[in-house]
């Protein structure tokens, strides 16, 4: 069977995993990794992701998107001349766990979970002592100590909705160092520490070109992505030229219904 020519456009939190599993696939790849944190501004995520799609030249069999719904950030992204393939998930944690059903089950059992993965640890300072101390120092230099203390109290308040730091282990990257970092963060925050064995099956099927419609949304040219507001999470809708869909920014929280 002739290898597929695939373009991967992904958040940088998945670069290790995509490079690893793509190297095991017979297909051929071009990679483009966008900066971490675009999910915090869904409109910006939509703009940059659409621009990356628009800039992709003809000749690829498909463009693989390394995102989930991501706070509605992918809603409105349109396939142009090349179909888009995206895993049906609320965010990238679905790809680390192997299925949205597994994510759903863990979410229901542990609703106050903050996820730690290689990409999340390497691309930003996760909640913990180092993040607190560095942010406090920045606020203190800019606003003074009293204002810095107030701002830190406001920032730390959203951590109260979490109770567990969960590290998803796919045995990729400096695993021991990342587990230690997650344990330290959990201890400092007073959270429980959990370690979950990751399942690469979804990512492996994505790069292999095995796109079961139950697991992946296939967006044909002249269609765009929308939230389906059901268990399928995503759907494809014909383009009408109606412009951008609205989106709201927010902290990195779980958005399962």
State the main characteristics.
globular; single chain; 21% strand; 257 residues; five-stranded mixed β-sheet; 9 helices; three-stranded parallel β-sheet; alpha/beta; disordered C terminus; 2 domains
Describe the structure.
The chain starts with a strand and ends in a 19-residue tail after the last strand. It has two domains: 5-95 and 200-238; 100-197, no CATH class. It has a five-stranded mixed beta sheet with strand order 2-1-3-4-8, sandwiched between helices. Strands 5-6-7 form a three-stranded parallel beta sheet. A two-stranded antiparallel ribbon has the order 9-10. The protein contains nine helices and ten strands. Helix 1 (15-23) links the parallel strand 1 and strand 2 (28-34). Helix 1 (15-23) packs across helix 9 and helix 6 (129-143) crosses helix 7. By secondary structure, it is α/β, with parallel strands linked by helices. The chain is globular, with a radius of gyration of 19 Å.
Secondary structure layout plus pairing:
Layout: E1 5-11, H1 15-23, E2 28-34, H2 42-54, E3 62-66, E4 84-87, H3 93-97, H4 100-109, E5 113-116, H5 118-123, H6 129-143, H7 145-157, E6 164-169, H8 175-189, E7 192-197, H9 201-208, E8 216-219, E9 223-227, E10 234-238
Helix pairs in contact: 1-9, 6-7
């Amino acid at each position: 069977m002739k290898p597929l020519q695939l373009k991967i456009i992904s958040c940088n939190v998945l670069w290790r995993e995509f490079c690893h599993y793509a190297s095991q696939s017979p297909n051929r790849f071009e990679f483009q990794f966008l900066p971490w944190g675009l999910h915090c501004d869904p409109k910006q995520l939509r703009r940059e992701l659409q621009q990356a799609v628009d800039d992709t030249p003809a000749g690829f069999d498909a463009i693989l998107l390394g995102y989930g719904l991501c706070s509605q950030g992918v809603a409105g992204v349109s396939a142009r001349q090349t179909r888009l393939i995206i895993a049906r998930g609320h965010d990238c944690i679905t790809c680390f766990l192997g299925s949205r059903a597994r994510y759903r089950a863990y979410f229901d059992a542990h609703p106050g979970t903050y996820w730690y993965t290689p990409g999340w640890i390497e691309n930003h300072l996760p909640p913990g002592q180092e993040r607190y101390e560095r942010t406090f120092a920045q606020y203190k230099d800019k606003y003074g100590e009293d204002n810095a203390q107030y701002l830190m109290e406001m920032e730390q308040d959203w951590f109260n909705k979490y109770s567990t730091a969960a590290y998803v282990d796919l045995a990729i990257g400096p695993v021991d160092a990342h587990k230690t970092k997650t344990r330290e963060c959990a201890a400092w925050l007073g959270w429980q520490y959990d370690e979950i064995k990751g399942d690469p099956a979804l990512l492996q099927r994505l790069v292999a070109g095995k796109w079961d419609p139950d697991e992946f949304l296939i967006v044909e040219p002249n269609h765009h992505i929308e939230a389906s507001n059901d268990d399928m999470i995503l759907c494809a809708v014909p383009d009408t030229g109606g412009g951008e869909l609205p989106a709201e920014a927010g902290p990195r929280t779980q958005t399962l219904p």
